[in-house]
Design goal:
alpha/beta; 2 domains; 7-stranded antiparallel sheet; globular; binds flavin-adenine dinucleotide; binds 2-acetamido-2-deoxy-beta-D-glucopyranose
Length: about 625
């Protein structure tokens, strides 16, 4: 199975060449650490981790260490060039090479789950689409956690802190193509497609003329995430904007920040227990399976930002999780939290293909010709122009299922501003399923996804060896609802491209069995054969109300029943957003950074109070004091 686009072999070699990091503040071995004690240790320099690092080090008195398992993002062409995001192969240095266990909903196939293994994490390797979630997503989170701070009104300033809209590479007039109020003044660059494709006008005109379930929505970042529109992406000046480029790089010259790459955290250590509550202060680091762990200390907090797979894996390895499961593996249980690794949710995705007219311009030739590939790359390198300034898709749409779908089933979407399915348009043959690009002809790829799935899975350990991948079971398409929704999405996409005048001079016909299927039975069988995921795993360290017995973290993202340990990444999502999820990760991180600062300020105030009252001889622990005041004040 190929999960990524094919690019010509010679060009692949070219992409493997990368420049050495130009940052002196980057350490590439724990031996280079000048000290072992920090106020905060952030595990994972990914999407969320880089935001936290940047925000916490704004205060020059706060000492922060970021530990990242992967390599530096600097000088990697397939990271920088938006279009080449699709060439990032599982098994390369910048990916974790994860594979699921046999998927019951996919005829027991396994599929790969790419995850960034590089600074910026998956924001350095993703396909760049920017959605902040419908207002309902945030209000639903607020309802689930019983905490107003997650409602859209309370969250909006944090979303606006993450990003700003910038001109697309081709500098075309974008008036009317987006809603300026949906973007803020933060470090990430967001832009509309910077190179038009033949599909764009066909998709948007079709949506505008049909309306109804396929209505046009000017900007899907304005709160209503139902409808068809241009895609906004994390691209500026034709280059990827990631949490590494936008957040971490500008912070790297701060003397209070150390960033350690090529290094894995393999265990979090609670060095003491206060009134039954383990206090986490230690992080054990290694570079390879044979290394003797080196321990660093976080005197204030460990912030776990390992992502939806890395975070539960590290919690479980550290004895935080379902007690019986851990005992069976020979891991000493430290904190019994049954939901660690549970509630894994992802969006299933299936491609369909259509052959289009020979005079159409698609990216098919480019994938077949090293010459053309080189020319296009040269155009990107010299002028930051051409096809490579785009993510592989310029337009898409989100749809709600017809009312009949909800006769016997409550709608799993967050609310009326959220969709159930998604259709993405690719201007060429994208070999994401089992089919490979034909030697001749031009094609388009239509990707359909279920964005409000009811299937659930889990992350569990297969062994206590931190270098063995955990068992990843996203449970793709294991409910009838999800399969019915996918079938409906495939049919909706077909109807979309067949019932309007905008496609008549374009289509030659369906390509492959799924696009040609005539009955739902056939479609179901083919979807099980072809589907993958859209790489949006969430939920494995879900937040829940403060007192709730379920969930892993409280609404301030602190691990329940522990002190000194917080989780900030996609694993804390209590419900999967009905869209692409990176903007929500950034926003969660901005929100969490302020929560961490607030708690840190509080601790500092207690410290000052302690000094004032000169009661040091009792040598009581500040963390206990902090906890006491906190509980008394809520
Ligand atoms: C191929 C792909 C395409 C995607 N496309 C899109 C898209 O177009 N739009 C969108 O919105 N979303 C997309 N996503 C999803 C989105 O990018 C992720 O959900 C998001 O970036 C996750 O952020 P995170 O902080 O939770 O984890 P990550 O960004 O993955 O960060 C986790 C970091 O922790 C590090 N780490 C993990 N364990 C350890 C450890 N034990 N020690 C040290 N370091 C560790 C990892 O190396 C990584 O850098 C895509 C994802 C992928 C993989
Ligand atoms: C990636 O994983 C596959 C199987 O899951 C394995 O065969 C392959 O060797 C791995 N590649 C790398 C580079 O680790
Ligand atoms: C998938 O595996 C399960 C358990 O091994 C088995 O019962 C089932 O028949 C298999 N399904 C298919 C379609 O092969
Ligand atoms: C949140 O809860 C309120 C009160 O029960 C309800 O009216 C509202 O529809 C809910 N909103 C979402 C998005 O879940
Ligand atoms: C862009 O287009 C809008 C309306 O389509 C127009 O009002 C505006 O003047 C244009 N801007 C520029 C700089 O041409
Ligand atoms: C879409 O509509 C616009 C504006 O009406 C028009 O200029 C353009 O040619 C149309 N595109 C297609 C592919 O029909
Ligand atoms: C645990 O570590 C913290 C932070 O370094 C330290 O303040 C505390 O004294 C340690 N506790 C024990 C029992 O060693
Ligand atoms: C592509 O470009 C690279 C580097 O610029 C060059 O070495 C290679 O020969 C080129 N390949 C082709 C087919 O032009
Ligand atoms: C709803 O459930 C009833 C009873 O099980 C069944 O007869 C009916 O076909 C179902 N309707 C739909 C639309 O699934
Ligand atoms: C889990 O462990 C078993 C026994 O060591 C091994 O055979 C199997 O391949 C592992 N599974 C995965 C998915 O790594
Ligand atoms: C492409 O060919 C079709 C017929 O196959 C024709 O209708 C259409 O006008 C042509 N388009 C262009 C841009 O030449
Ligand atoms: C923390 O304290 C600093 C300095 O006293 C202050 O500037 C900042 O606003 C405070 N942050 C929060 C989130 O309370």
């Amino acid at each position: 199975m190929k999960s990524t686009f094919q690019i010509p072999f010679t060009s692949k070699l070219l992409l493997l060449l990368f420049a050495k990091s130009s940052f002196s503040a980057l350490l590439s071995s724990p031996r280079e650490l000048a000290k072992s004690k920090y106020d905060f240790v952030i595990v994972g320099g990914g999407t969320a981790g880089s935001v936290i690092a940047s925000r916490l080090t704004e205060d020059s008195s706060v000492k922060v260490l970021v530990v990242e398992a992967g390599i530096s993002h600097v000088g990697l062409l397939n990271v920088e060039v938006p279009f080449l995001s699709t060439s990032i192969q599982p098994g390369t240095a910048i990916d974790w090479n994860y594979t699921t266990v046999a998927q019951a909903g996919l005829d027991n196939r396994t599929v790969s789950i790419p995850r960034g293994h590089v600074l910026g994490g998956s924001s350095s390797t993703n396909v760049l689409v920017w959605n902040r979630g419908s207002n309902d997503v945030w209000d639903h989170w607020s309802n689930i956690t019983k905490d107003e701070r997650w409602s859209w009104n309370a969250i909006e300033p944090y979303y606006l802190k993450t990003n700003h809209m910038t001109t697309p590479a081709d500098k075309h007039n974008t008036t009317g193509q987006f809603d300026p109020s949906a973007y803020g003044s933060g470090p990430l660059d967001i832009s509309l497609p910077g190179y038009p494709t033949e599909l764009d006008g066909r998709v948007l005109n079709t949506s505008k003329s049909l309306g109804g379930r396929v209505k046009y929505t000017q900007d899907l970042n304005s709160g209503d995430l139902v409808g068809f529109s241009y895609i906004q992406s994390t691209i500026g000046n034709g280059e990827r904007s990631s949490s590494a480029t936008a957040y971490l790089e500008p912070a790297l010259d701060r003397s209070n920040l150390d960033v350690l790459i090529n290094t894995r955290a393999i265990r979090l250590v609670a060095n003491e227990t206060q009134a039954g509550t383990p206090v986490f202060t230690g992080v054990e680091l290694v570079q390879g399976p044979q290394d003797t762990p080196i321990r660093v200390t976080a005197s204030n907090e460990i912030v776990l930002c390992g992502g939806s797979i890395g975070t539960p894996q590290l919690l479980l390895l550290s004895g935080v999780g379902p007690k019986e499961e851990l005992t069976t593996l020979g891991i000493d249980p430290v904190l019994d939290i049954p939901d660690v690794g549970k509630n894994l949710i992802d969006h299933p995705l299936v491609p369909t293909y259509y052959q289009v007219a020979d005079n159409a311009t698609t990216f098919d030739d480019l994938l077949r010709s090293a010459d053309l590939f080189n020319q296009t790359l040269a155009q990107w390198q010299n002028d930051k122009q051409g096809l490579f300034v785009n993510s592989p898709s310029n337009t898409y749409g989100f749809l709600q299922l017809p009312d009949e779908a909800f006769v016997n089933q409550t709608n799993p979407a967050a609310g009326p501003l959220s969709a159930n399915t998604e259709i993405l348009f690719g201007d060429g043959f994208a070999p994401l399923g089992t089919l490979t690009q034909p030697l001749m002809g031009r094609f388009i790829t239509i990707l359909t996804a279920v964005v409000s799935p009811t299937s659930r899975g889990s992350i569990t350990l297969n062994s206590s060896d931190p270098f063995e991948q955990p068992l990843i079971n996203p449970g793709i398409l294991t409910t009838e609802f999800d399969m019915n929704a996918m079938v409906q999405a495939v049919k909706d996409s077909q109807q979309f491209i067949h019932t309007s005048p905008y496609w008549d001079d374009f289509f030659l016909g369906p390509y492959g069995d799924l696009a040609s299927a005539e009955t739902d039975e056939e479609r179901i069988e083919l979807i099980r054969k072809e589907a993958v995921t859209i790489y949006h795993p969430v939920g494995t360290a879900s937040m829940s109300p403060k007192e709730a017995k379920w969930g892993v973290t409280d609404p301030e993202l602190r691990v329940k029943g522990a002190r000194g340990l917080r989780v900030v990444d996609a694993s804390i999502f209590p419900h999967i957003p009905e869209c692409h999820i990176q903007a929500l990760v950034y926003t969660v991180a901005e929100r969490a950074a302020d929560m961490i600062k607030e708690a840190y300020n509080y601790t500092k105030r207690c410290e000052a109070r302690k000094e004032d009252s000169e009661s040091a001889k009792f040598s009581y622990d500040l963390r206990a004091l902090d906890s006491h005041f906190r509980d008394a004040s809520t």
